[in-house]
Design brief:
The chain is 43% helix and 15% strand. The protein is built from 14 helices and 11 strands.
């Protein structure tokens, strides 16, 4: 009997393991030429200079000057960077709420988000008037509101352990036509909202100009906006990938997009734009440039947290994954800090303190998310919640002497 069961299981794995979802992927040689039909300039690779993102940066500054009526080069700019972290996103949501209550939260010139940070980003971008919606979104959901476990007989055929219909429905509730129009209006005022996904076919990060999508006026804008958010939060294998229709050389194809956290936990301009070139295009010298401040909210811990690991498969896998994500986040933060140091930008970051437990991986508990939300809110209301240099591994002296 055991032999028959084993044979049956092997046969099932072979059958379903060989099955695949029908798709029409972009030929590898055409991936650089693939665009969103009707919206060719709403995205680009996150790992190379982007001509239209560079032009958009310059135009966004000019738009902001025109709207504010301020003299060129005199308006401060604040940037918010939101990391991934699953249900730990409740921490970032709570921090933004506490920051608003302090009365010190700025109107951000640029907001970027990955994974759970991408889901926070639209509300963070629109400002403190949306704090109540953000609180509901990150304190009232449970696991069943995010995903459903698949039948073992469909896992290999469908390419994921779960279905994310509930998460897609939740994103539809969050991103309405009114939200889209509000984001489009702020985009026209010179503000920018970026979200990143991983293009799995290309093995590259894609950065999406979400305000440009919202302001495009295209009939598919709302659907694309929601799809990008879902893709950015779709952990591969655990969640199904999101297929996005594109056009290359006059033909329609699909791209496979998953969680941006596969490549980055945090992102800013990186290789995409050149700040010095933008300053020259705007006729502003580095000495005369307005103060730019970067605020990074890490939805999770980033400091090393030693503990004894259980030798079982699940314990080792979970510990390895959290260690990997911490290392990726640290690398991203170091890169942003180095760019800030180079360009004379004020650097700030905050994350879940090591003495406070993170939310268990893969679970969405309203009680635990409320705990993290209140933790973030409390930290934001402290006199000095921000750290001025990346943590732990650089040098303890940096914390004692910021800027050195």
């Amino acid at each position: 009997m055991r032999r028959r069961i084993a044979v049956t299981l092997v046969a099932t794995l072979l059958v379903f393991g060989c099955a695949s979802i029908e798709r029409h992927p972009v030929p590898t040689e055409a991936m650089d030429r693939a665009i969103i039909p009707g919206m060719p300039e709403v995205r680009d690779w996150g790992d190379r200079p982007s001509e239209h993102f560079q032009e958009d940066l310059v135009q966004s500054v000019r738009d902001a000057w025109e709207v504010s009526g301020a003299a060129p080069g005199t308006t401060p700019a604040d940037v918010l960077v939101l990391s991934g972290g699953g249900s730990n996103g409740a921490f970032g949501a709570g921090f933004l709420s506490g920051w608003s209550r302090n009365g010190a939260r700025p109107t951000f010139k640029l907001v970027t988000g990955i994974s759970t940070g991408a889901l926070i980003a639209p509300y963070a971008f629109l400002g403190e008037d949306y704090d109540d919606e953000l609180e509901r979104a990150f304190t009232t959901v449970s696991t069943r509101d995010v995903y459903k476990i698949r039948s073992p007989f469909t896992i290999f055929k469908k390419g994921s352990l779960t279905r994310t219909d509930p998460l897609a429905a939740k994103i539809e509730e969050m991103v309405t036509n009114d939200i889209l129009h509000a984001i489009a209006a702020e985009h026209r005022r010179g503000r920018r909202l970026f979200v990143a996904t991983t293009h799995l076919d290309a093995q590259r990060l894609v950065v999406w100009n979400m305000g440009a999508i919202a302001a495009s006026g295209r009939p598919q804008a709302l659907e694309l906006f929601r799809k990008v958010l879902l893709a950015s939060a779709s952990i591969p294998v655990a969640f199904p990938p999101v297929y996005i229709e594109v056009e290359a050389d006059g033909q329609r194809y699909d791209e496979m997009h998953v969680d941006g956290g596969v490549i980055a936990e945090l992102f800013l301009w990186g290789a995409m734009v050149d700040i010095a070139d933008a300053r020259r295009a705007l006729g502003v010298t580095a000495d005369a440039s307005p103060q730019v401040s970067i605020y990074i909210i890490r939805n999770g811990q980033i400091d090393a947290a030693p503990e004894q690991v259980e030798p079982g498969l699940i314990g080792i896998a979970q510990r390895s994954l959290t260690t990997l994500l911490k290392a990726v986040a640290m690398g991203d933060m170091l890169r942003i800090w180095a760019l800030a140091e180079r360009d004379g930008i004020d650097f700030n970051y905050v994350g879940i303190p090591p003495e406070n437990a993170e939310s268990p991986a893969g679970t969405f508990s309203p009680a635990d998310m409320r705990r993290l939300f209140e933790l973030g809110r409390a930290i934001a209301r402290q006199p000095t919640p921000w750290r001025k240099v990346p943590p732990a591994w650089i040098s303890e002296e940096l914390d004692k002497h910021p800027g050195q």
